[in-house]
Amino acid sequence: MSTGTFLDLWSDPGSRLGGSALPAHIGLADPEVQRLPDPSLLLRSPRISGSGIQYDIELLSGSLPGHTGACVLFLGPGLRAE
Quick check: is 76 in a domain? Predict the structure, then answer.
């Protein structure tokens, strides 16, 4: 899915993504980073930034490292905000 299509779905109140905040979990895949419980977040205000996407976040549980390499962002209305 393109970033533009994703942002269109996010802003559409009739879509499953529509809404002001979306729960998410980050899976850290960088073997050099200390293994921590996967952080639980609420994402808000998605926007294009350079060649990627940027969000405002609220950390709900866990902690985020100061920097990391590879990670996976799982998001959607089916996730529980812990």
Answer: yes
Count structural domains, the chain.
Answer: 1
Residue 68: count of CB within 10 angstroms of its CB: 14
- Convert the pLDDT of each residue in 18-31 to its tens digit: 667 888 888 878 77
Read off the tokens for 71.
């990670």
Angle at 57 between CA 82 and CA 5, to 5 degrees: 105
| Residue 14 · residue 43 · CB < 8 Å | no
Q: Would you say 67 and 24 are in contact if contact means Cβ atoms under 8 Å apart?
A: no
For 29-53, the pLDDT digits (tens) are 877 766 667 788 898 888 888 888 8
